[in-house]
Amino acid sequence: MNAPIVLEPLADAQCTPLDQVDVSDPRLYQNHVWQPYFARLRREEPVHWRENGMYGSFWSITKYQDIMDVETRHQEFSSEAALGGIMITDRPMDHRRPSFISMDPPKHTDQRRVVAPTFTPTNMQKMAIGTRERVRRILDSLPRNEVFDWVDLVSIEVTTQMLATLFDFPFEQRRKLTFWSDTAIMDANAGGIVDSEEKRLEILTECLETMTGLWREREKLPPRPDLISMMAHGEGTHDLLDRPMEFLRNLMLLIVGGNDTTRNSISGGLWALHNHRDQWEKLRGNSLLIPSFAQEAIRWQSPIIHMRRTALCDAQVGGKRIRKDDKVVMWYVSGNRDETAIPDADRFIIDREKPRQHLAFGYGMHRCVGARLAELQLSILWEEILARDLKIEVMDEPKRIYSNFIGGISSLPVRIAA
Question: Is the pLDDT of residue 95 over 60?
Fold first, then answer.
């Protein structure tokens, strides 16, 4: 199932009968050949029904405005885990466990409200100090004049050190957070360690047990600003240990959300600059463009490829009739390349007039709660890279993961001149 796509992507995208186009195939993203398929759907059938695809039958929502439309209609399009949740994959009923992103109001609102204060502007200012210190140590420790993996030594370290700080997790064990994050999102068909939902749960049980131990310690202490303490003392979450699988799903939401968006935008941003030298020189010449560049890197990479909803009733989207119980998939990766909403959407432009006009963080009530933290980490990293005038040479193409949910880069070899 993980074999490479043989046909030339552009030719395949054009010659495949429209009703047979299946943008759920993870190989499109692993081989980075998804663009012409979505370009065709946006042009010919932006709300597209695929019967019996690799991940069942589903509607593809591919245009920017239609995606925002679905995002804001939670009374008609549900995120509830019991109905299928937020991923195109239909997991068995006994593995459909809720977290606040896979809930509808009011429960979603109650649980999200508990962790939201972590990401206020005031807290971002406080976090910036520690983030800069960690980034400086990471950059100053990198090898010079030898090839190393940017993903391993920079992208993962920046985000995992931040996660360990947010959870007040034992710092020397921080790579467990990375491992659990990778386990949570790994496609069972990817040929990796996770080959079934049972194996995934077996691995993540260690996460549940570890975090339960931290919870037990912190619920006995006065409230503190780490995420475990906030959940232990929060009005909407203080009883989560009574529902351990829901606790685990909320943990994985926070871990994956804190890891994958930033980690893959750090890697994807460097790869984009490598392939757009004019933009790299523009950035080197004007560090004030860093916040805009960070937004463009996130849009360009689109680290969350899709989000799924389930229709609660018959409804209309883009002139198409959606039936009750239909699976509705919003392809952020496509909305972020929609020329009708984003000018020159297929170009990487770090000084866009409206750099925040993208869907990489979602939209509406489910918009990523940690979006500002992702922007902060990217901005500080590139401020410190430019301050050191690091000459980063990308040595080979990135390796991408087998997934239709996470736009992930697993390896990117680079060399920094002394």
Answer: no
